[in-house]
Amino acid sequence: MNVVSAIFFGIIQGLTEFLPVSSSGHLAIMQNIFGMENVEETSLTFTVLLHLGTLIAVFLVYRRDIFPLIPAFFTGLGKLFHGKRKLADYNERERMVFFVILATVPLVLAVLMKDGVALLSAHTKVIGFILMLNALVLYISDRFSGGNGGINEMTPRSAVMVGLCQFCAVLPGLSRSGATITGGLLQGFSREFAVKFSFILSIPAILGANILEVPKIVSNPIPQGEMVAYIAGVVAAALSGIAAMKLLQFISRKSNFRIFSYYCLAAGLIAVIFG
Hints:
275 residues
């Protein structure tokens, strides 16, 4: 792994992790059609570190929202142990913690689908059809203005619905951010809150996926002489991730996901034709 390759993979990871175009789908297509290196298999530790870079991006962009959630978790837990069961008993940050946890629960089922997802990733035409489905999801999101709902209007049911959308996005070609933002809009969230909740929800999703890889990382240390390349890849993933989130925030305010919808439709057609 040289520095140029590491930066390239870092940029791809940062952009596709947050833009609604499916990182897993794009990586699978590039591997299947263009014979690109499967970094997840050949450099597992590097892949995990790239995800760390995207996590850094989320924390930097939403630091004012995320860091107060840490003490809110413990204060909310204290209220729960004291028998408080109504949402009205919890403040906004405590409710946000509860809803993020609740929306993450469906992802537990994704562990059972790991082999099936890997099988789908080997079929470029299937990924192409899923990318076209993703284009439809984004088109619906673009046409649906959502509501004015925020954390005060959020319910356990709406959190679970967004979580189910995130679960569906384990399919290669279906964007996690696109699915969760669309799910939030369909639950009456404002566009700004739907985007914010989607990005905050990515934290346990990314952490959970990589924690499962820890046993493998132990046996895959960073190769001697490649430390600089690995660091360059992480920095590239973080910077491109920040750029992608800022871009998506701007586009969501303008209510225009059509450019991503058209892109995914074109990418899906290419995958189906040449896969």
